[in-house]
Structure formats: C-alpha cells, structure tokens
Amino acid sequence: MATDSMTPFPGLRPFGEEEDYLFFGREDQTNDLLKLLRTQRFLAVVGTSGSGKSSLVRAGMLPALYGGTMAGAGSDWETVVFRPGGDPLLNLAEAMIAADLYDPEDAEAPFRIRATLSRSRQGLVQAVEYSDLPRESNLLIVVDQFEELFRYRGVSGKHQEQASAFVKLLLNAARTEDRSIFVVITMRSDYLGDCAHLSGLAEAVNDGKYLIPKLTRDQRRDAIVKPAAVGGGKISESLVQQLLNDVGEDADQLPILQHALMRIWDFWQQDHDEGEPVALRHYDAVGGIANALSNHADEVYDDLPTEESRGLARKVFQAITERGGDERGIRRPTRMDKLCEIVAATPEDVSIILDAYRQVGRTFVMPLEGTEITAETVVDISHESLMRVWRRLSRWVEEESQNARVYTRLSETASLYHRDLAGVYRDPDLAIALSWREQAQPNGAWARRYREGFTEAIKFLEESYETTHAEEIAKEESRERELEQAKLVASLQARAKKRLSVLLGCIAIALVASVIMYVDSLEQREVAVESRAEAEKSAAESQRLAKE
Ligand SMILES: Nc1ncnc2c1ncn2[C@@H]1O[C@H](COP(=O)(O)OP(=O)(O)OP(=O)(O)O)[C@@H](O)[C@H]1O
Ligand SMILES: [Mg+2]
Description:
Strand order of the largest sheet: 2-3-4-1-5
Structural class: alpha/beta
Oligomer: single chain
CATH topology of the domain at 26-214: Rossmann fold
Strand content: 5-15%
Bound molecules: adenosine-5'-triphosphate, magnesium ion
Radius of gyration: 44 Å
Shape: elongated
Helix content: 55-70%
C-alpha cells in the first residue's frame, strides 16, 4: 500500500507549503506574484474554482519568500495562513498562535488576541506589537478562501459587521508604517462583485489584483511528468499524451487531473514489473479521467461497514456541501460538533465515515489523515469538483436542496399562518411535507442552516395534518351515512316491488279462475238448455201419444 509521502500527487487538495519540491508549472506566476508584492502590500489572487490559487500561494509564493527571492525584502519572513470561516477574527487569532507569534502554551491567548483584534481598526497592528515577532521581520498574512467571508454572510446579521471589521483590520495592517505587514488573499473570481460591499476592499483589490492564468499544455505536462520523476517513477509518453488530451479544457481540469494521477500512481505502485513506467494500462484500470474520481469515491462508499454507515455517509456529505445559487455545488466547511448535531450521530460514528474518506490516498475530506479531529475541527470536502464529478454526491446534493426547499416553504407558511395570513397546509403540499419529514428525519440543527423556526414549522405541519385528517374523517362519516340511507331506500323499494308482484299474481290467478268459472257456467247453461229442449220434446211427444 502506498503512503502519502511516496505519492507525489496531492489529489484533490491544494499543495502545501512544504510541498514546493512537487509543485511545477507555476514558476512564472510565482515570480509575477513576488514582483507585485514589491509594490503592493495588499494582494488579491483571484481565479476560477480549482484554478490553483491556494497552491500557487502556499507552494509557490511562500517557499520563494523564505528563500529570499523577493529582492529588497530579505528572507526573514513570518507567515500566518488561515481561512476566515464563520469567525474570521478567532481564526486569525488561532493562526497567529499556530505561527508561533505567541506562547502556544497560553490557553487564554486566542481569546485575548481576538479581543485585541476587535478593539479597534488598528487591532491587527496592535496584536502584532504584542507578539514575539522581531520588529525587523516581515509578516505575511495569507487569507486563503477569502470568499468564505461572503458565504457565511447569510447565516447571521452579526457576520456582516464582523466581515467589515475584519477587512478594515487587514487594510490598516497593510498600510501601517510601523511594521512590515503584507496581506495576500485568495478568492474565487465569482465573488469579486461582493468586495464592493465592504468599505475600502474594492479599491484595495483593484490596486493589487492578480488573475491567475490557466496552465498551458506545456505547464500541464510539467505538472504531470516532473512530480513523478521526484517520486522516483516515470510516466510513459503515451500516457502523458492521453492525459493531456483527456483533461481538455474542462473547468475542473486541475483537481480531476490531480486525483487521476494520484490514483494511477497508487495503482502503479501496487502493480508494475521491474522498470515498467506508469502506463496506459494503469490509467485504464482506474477508469480514465472521466470515471477515476467517481469510481474511487463509490468504492469507499461500498466499503463502509454497514448499511447504517452508508446512510450516515450520505447525511455527512449533504451537511458539508451545498448547492449554490448558480446551481453549482459549493462546499460548506462545518465544525465537527455541529456536524454531529446535524446528522444526529455520535462523533465515533461520524469519524468512521470521515476516516474512510480522508485516509492516505483518499483525499476527499479535510483534514487529512494524521490530523486529529476534535469537536472544534472544521470538516470540509477537499474540493468542489468532487460535487460535480462524483455522480452519487451530486444526487445527494440535489436531494438536500429539495429537502431545504420543502422545509423553507413549510417554515415560511407556518409564520404566515401564525399571523393569520395563510391557512393550514393541504395536499399536495401536506403530503410532500409529511413524506419529507418521514424520509429526511430533519432536526433543529439541520433546519437552522436554512431558516430559524423549526419547532414552529413542525407544529404547523402536525396541526395541518390533524385538521385535514379530522376533515377527512368527517367527510368519510357523512359519506357512510349517505350510503346507509341509500341502502335503506333501495331495500324499501325492493320490498314494495315484491308486494306488488304478489298482488298482481293473485289478481291474475283470480282472473283465470273467473274465466274458467264463466266458461264452465256457459257450458252448464248450454247443457240445461239442451236438457230443457229435450224435456220439452219428450213432453210434447208424450202429449201427442196421449192424444192418439
Ligand atoms: N501547478 C499545479 N500542478 C498540478 N496540480 C495543481 C497545480 N496547482 C493546483 N493543482 C491542483 O488543482 C486542484 C485545485 O488546486 P487549489 O486548491 O490550489 O485551487 P484553488 O484555485 O485554490 O481552488 P478553490 O477555488 O477551491 O479555492 C488541487 O487538486 C491541486 O492539487
Ligand atoms: Mg483555494
């Protein structure tokens, strides 16, 4: 089994500071950045998702600074690298401690520094003054994934204030004459427009913007061939050509290429003859560029120990991803304690999932193996491209977005209902909401990410159910009553009909009898007449005989 140190390709995650010896193809851009930094103390590295911003700054620019490449600035650099997340001031304070600017043993330090940072616009300069940083040292503050500042904005109103205070701290620190402080931010270009909402930021970005170019075909070739050579291997020319052709101009080309390379390399390590280079057969075995990532993530899913853990994996990934407004997925870094609350599972159970996806050779989830996950650790997918390329995850993301829509609508209607502006839910909305509750089993922690008022919404749903249920029962009862009546009428009618037919039968019989009797009487009359005539004839005969 390969170990990460033997794998010269980082997979989905960005290159780290200490991986400059594996980082190729960005030499020109690194020099461009250093040139800019000579004149600008505030620099914004912008580009599309996955274009390599974080890697360029971390593995290109920082090592070059330490190496003293930036003319006139010396090599005495201290760097603070962090992501702003939901609490930029606290994250900055913690990063300053991690960079050894303060005593790491001081448990109170993060909160004390945070308090200094939030005290005034010069808070960052003051925090640096109070630190152990020698006066003559340069300080570079790297705010990676700066767009998180805008992404968290919707969550609470307080965040807007915090974001604005945070930006003022950075801008003032970069302007100060007292210290040599530089600020570099990396940000998705889609968020450039948002900068205008924070005072002074648009101007600063305009002055020091660096739009990261796409790697050329030759630079991509370097990014494939050179790390392999560092790792002690060789990639066959036919595979290099195949990779360059297959990766094409796709927007996610770098993360997809990196992941495929990591997989191919791992496969090659386990299966190659003496002197055999990494070849097309290794590439085909992992499913090619088109399927390597999706197949790999599915394999991890299928290998999870139980059906329950697979169900939990779905919830975990749904919690740390989000479908953005533009229908593209975005990541949603989430603290471990909050994640456990959202998915309603213990840290042990959630760790089984995370460990499976973050172990060596599987860089799907951050932090990677080797970093302990505590309640405060922020869990994140390593790159958005995972959401676009792993087919199962894109289905989950779609499902989560449907669930969020059903809940938001329910919760909005519940608020209107309480203000007498809407009635209870009825079908089909009711049926949809009931099936959502049954299948998604939502809880307050989950719902809070979309809209407050979960308890109220669920109460409204139950009330809607009871009201419509009671109405249905009443309707059913009235239908049954109608049916009974109809049955009664039908049976009365049937009885009357029967009586009539009996009567008619009797009449018919009587009629037949009287006809028979009549005919009989006629016959008897005829006999009587005949007898009479006979008698008269005999009498006449007797008389005639007597006369004679
Ligand atoms: N020069 C390079 N050579 C090869 N792979 C690279 C290079 N630069 C970046 N990558 C790879 O591209 C992917 C994206 O890199 P990175 O995270 O640095 O980009 P980003 O622009 O910061 O992304 P995001 O928009 O998510 O912040 C990662 O998989 C990384 O390993
Ligand atoms: Mg980045």
